[in-house]
């Protein structure tokens, strides 16, 4: 049992997250040919590139988008040329090709391929959204929700996110679910929150799967069902979702909706803790300190308490300070070494 950390043993849900770029990122450029060997282009690829060049020159927006992708990636026999990629994107955008508008908006917002220009990024994003591009609508909604580049306006956020959700955008469906769950920009309605989480989760979106598991676990907006809660946590956890991994670990530790298995609980806590989730780090420290799910290990308990404490977890700091009084000098040295190793491997550290 993880009685010492019961205050964090319940399911946790997420707040709306920023929309990520939905277009596929540019593939890595193909390696150059060895020096002294001329680069050659297969005849079929030459014809393909020439065909798209001709169609694009005639104003075919789809061909312009294809060429932009080819130049951005250096694919299909076309040399990588970001300037030409932007040129063809601009031509497609001039015809209100929504994917081009959205992609250009991303590029101006990022400021990597073109100079950063938030105003231009917003203008392009608004044009894409107004012309029905679901990902752009979702992103614009998040901007209004957060008050970034536009005045904060939850009603407008809900409107744009709702439009994207209606088109099947999984991220928007998730965010609309969160808005209904919290009453932000829309009337609070747990049943509708569940409905939108279900639509998003059906597309395999991990945050929605995790939140849906939380709704089943708490019986909020839907009948309580511990087995279904575990099923949804498992799906999200398998995709690397840290909160779901934590919640799944707690379910295994307590035998709720699944057979009790403290060793498996420790495995899921490890995965979540390694991603930096402080509640998992604290709980993993508890398990090592008490020999739950595996051998007692004060060195590892100290390390995970410390990592949680670095994220302002006062209880973890207190447990660590008590534990260190019972550690030998060698254990303290081993703990510092392990801590340094973990910090070098953990993502974002």
The low-confidence runs, each spanning 5 or more residues with pLDDT under 50, are: 1-11, 15-45
Sequence of secondary-structure elements: HHHHHHHHHHHHHHHHH
**Number of beta-strand segments:** 0
Distance between the termini: 30 Å
Shape: globular
Mean pLDDT: 88
Number of helices: 17
Main sheet record? none
- Percentage of residues in strands: under 5%
**What is the CA-atom radius of gyration, in angstroms?**
25 Å
Helix content: 55-70%
Category from helices, strands and their pairing: mainly alpha
Walkthrough of the structure:
The protein has 349 residues and is an all-alpha fold. Helix content is 64%, strand content 0%. It has 17 helices and no strands.
Features:
single chain; 349 residues; mainly alpha; globular
